[in-house]
Design brief:
CATH superfamily of the largest domain: Vaccinia Virus protein VP39
Largest sheet: 7 strands, mixed
Number of helices: 9
CATH topology of the largest domain: Rossmann fold
Structural class: alpha/beta
Strand order of the largest sheet: 6-2-1-7-8-10-9
Radius of gyration: 19 Å
Length: 274
């Protein structure tokens, strides 16, 4: 870790920005350095300079680099109490005034959150009324999410989360197991549009009733968090809901006064001002 100088990181982020238009300049420094170090160890680069050279020369390698830097460990029905609040309060509140519901999973990673949402909506009988957009910066992880293909070894934790969430059946109702792999039921994501999207400088989408951006901003510094939150706010209907990660906060950000806290423990907010 101490081998990586700030100047090395600045050079690396500048090259990436100029060549590929990915902006990592406002990522949380300690987290970014740790992930760069992991890439160096993984590919046995002698220095950050060697990593920079490879990124310059090899666009295919750059995609591998992005996958490593933005890797998110995720699971189905992560934080089961959060999902209970969404099921028992947030979705019913939205559906009071709407025939349909629009949802954006921002930074959807390998798709576990999207499948959790679809399972929950199906059990509530409103999946056919939902329009869902799922986005991520990493094309490869998005492809994995689209396939709904997971390792069997991860399903034990997912099943425990589902039980704690108090779903109406069993998680096994929603997938088939073949040769050590789990294939999620494709009908669950028939209404999902998967898109490659950069939260930092990508376009603002349509308006949504519910935006989930959980455990994405912990990797950003305050400047970047502010920018991302402005974009999320812009993408929401008035009185729409925003869910962020348990270690994240809106309190200090510039647009904090445009939201009210709906559930502080689960970090769910409601937009009250344009």
């Amino acid at each position: 870790m101490q081998d990586i100088e700030i100047a090395d990181i600045r050079n690396l982020t500048q090259v990436i920005k100029e060549r590929y238009n990915y902006d990592f300049t406002n990522y949380a420094m300690s987290s970014f350095k740790r992930r760069v170090q992991r890439v160096i160890d993984l590919y046995k680069f002698a220095s950050v300079g060697h990593l920079v050279s490879r990124i310059k020369e090899d666009p295919a390698f750059f995609h591998d680099f992005i996958s490593e830097i933005t890797v998110n460990v995720t699971e189905m029905f992560r934080d089961p109490s959060f999902w209970r609040v969404v099921r028992d309060h947030i979705i019913p509140n939205i559906m009071l005034n709407h025939d349909t519901i629009s949802i954006w999973h921002a930074g959807c990673s390998s798709g576990e959150e999207v499948f959790s949402m679809s399972i929950m909506l199906k059990e509530m009988g409103v999946l056919n009324k939902a329009k869902i957009i799922a986005t991520d910066i990493d094309k490869e992880i998005l492809d994995k999410a689209k396939k709904g293909l997971y390792a069997v070894k991860h399903m034990d934790l997912n099943e425990k989360n589902y039980i704690r969430y108090q779903g109406t059946g069993s998680l096994k109702d929603y997938y088939e197991e073949r040769e050590g792999k789990v294939y999620m039921d494709r009908s669950l994501v028939a209404n999902v549009s998967w898109r490659e999207h950069n939260l930092v400088n990508g376009p603002v989408f349509n308006k949504f009733d519910l935006v989930l951006c959980r455990n994405v901003m912990i990797y950003f510094n305050q400047t970047l968090q502010n920018e991302v939150l402005k974009r999320l706010h812009e993408s929401m209907f008035k009185y729409g809901y925003l869910a962020i990660g348990s270690k994240e906060s809106l309190i200090w950000c510039e647009i904090a006064n445009k939201f009210i806290v709906v559930n502080n423990e689960e970090k769910i907010y409601k937009k009250i001002k344009e």
